[in-house]
Amino acid sequence: MELLSEYGLFLAKIVTVVAAIAVVVMLIVNQSLRKRQRGELRVTRLGEQYKEMQEELSVALLEPAQQKLWHKAQKKKLRQEAKAAKAKAKAGEAAAATKPRAWVLDFKGSMDAHEVGALREEITAVLTLAQPADQVIMRLESPGGVVHGYGLAASQIQRLRDKHIPLTVAVDKVAASGGYMMACVADKIVAAPFSIIGSIGVVAQIPNFNRFLKSKDIDIELHTAGQYKRTLTLLGENTEEGRQKFRESLNETHDLFKGFVQQMRPQLNIDEVATGEHWYGTQALEKGLVDEVGTSDELLLGLMQSHEVIGLRYLQRKKLLDRLTGSAAESADRLLMRWWQRGQKPMQ
Q1: Separation of alpha carbons 266 and 76, rounded Å
Q2: Which of 272, 125, 109, 261 is CA-nearest to residue 185?
Q3: Is 132 helix (H, G, I), strand (E, B) or coil?
Q4: pTM for this predicted structure
Q5: What tens digit of pLDDT does each residue of 284-331 get?
Q6: How far is CA 340 from CA 150, 283, 302, in A?
Q7: What CA–CA distance (Å, rounded) separates 210 from 14?
Q8: Most buried residue, 64, 166, 247, 295, by CB count within 10 Å?
Q9: DSSP-based three-state secondary structure for 134
């Protein structure tokens, strides 16, 4: 009996120690997550990546003996450069003047434009360090989405324009509707030959289940204060007056969209291009919707001799639930994109 008692006491001590360790670990992890909750800014030297790729390919084409000599010479060169840099640092010499920078941002927009949060951080980071000779390249891909989301995204890009930092938007696939609203803020738009551009229009649709509910003897009561607090509804009976007001709201939004594009690109014949239609890159150039036909790859390669090309990306740490719901949202966006490519038009 005494042995069992001592054994039980021993187990209790072990459980207590394990629990205490688990609590400490949880506190440390939680503190670490809190520090990283805001996210992190990831910087990539795209010019160096390109140079490394070029060297790897060049070396791969050499004979084995030549490869050995190249690697030997490269090691010697790197040692000499490291030694020289260390000597300069000890002597307190200022770093040599660097090339102007080309900051590269990527925006792949979803229907709700939630990526604007990361865009805000990236643009703020650029504004804190940008020099007069610097410029920004934005690789943009979006079929559009909600008006307020893409309106905010365009306003974020406007911050660069207000600070007189040259901005080029490169469209490899699609910048339509709200995506084009963002693109037109740029000083220059470069579009791939078969990229989708334009769709300056507004669309909204809403199902109505009122007749179905009536057939099941289900009544819906909707009470509002304000004549147009609700125009069209999902469940209630819609009126012609409500439909007319809804159409008026769409037209008002379209007029605002047209006015914004005209302000950003005054050379456009806005009545000709604001029909809701989209055009491919070469056609968009003829319409004045873009300034040049080309890919983002050629654009960046052309800058690497004269600029230090730096990729900037803000990564927000997500909770498990956000990651799961985010994956579902991305799947829905991809499905919507496929539907749109089959002939559907995006929202504004």
Answers
A1: 57
A2: 261
A3: coil
A4: 0.76
A5: 999 999 999 999 999 999 999 899 999 999 997 765 555 555 566 666
A6: 18, 19, 33
A7: 64
A8: 295
A9: coil
* DSSP alpha helix (H) spans, 104-146: 116-129
- Joined tokens for residue 231: 């125009």
Task: Look up residue 58 and give its two tokens.
Answer: 């060049």
Coarse DSSP helix, strand, coil percentages of the chain, rounded to the nearest 5 percent: 55, 15, 30
Cα–Cα distance, 11 to 110 (Å, whole number): 54
> Are the beta carbons of 182 and 161 closer than 8 angstroms?
no
Please provide the DSSP assignment of 79-113 as one string: HHHHHHHHHHHHHTPPPPPPPPEEEEEEEE--TT-
Give the full edge-to-edge strand order of the sheet including 174-176: 174-176, 196-198, 278-280
The DSSP result for 175-194, as a single string, is: EETHHHHHHTTSSEEEE-TT
- Residue ranges per structural domain of the chain: 39-81+97-199+275-348, 202-265
Which H or E run includes 152?
helix 147-162
Q: What is the pLDDT of residues 194-216, one digit of tens each?
A: 999 999 999 888 898 888 988 88
Joined tokens for residue 284: 């968009």
Q: Which residues are catalytic?
A: 177, 229
Distances (CA, A) of 203 to 177, 199, 344, 346, 348: 10, 10, 11, 7, 6
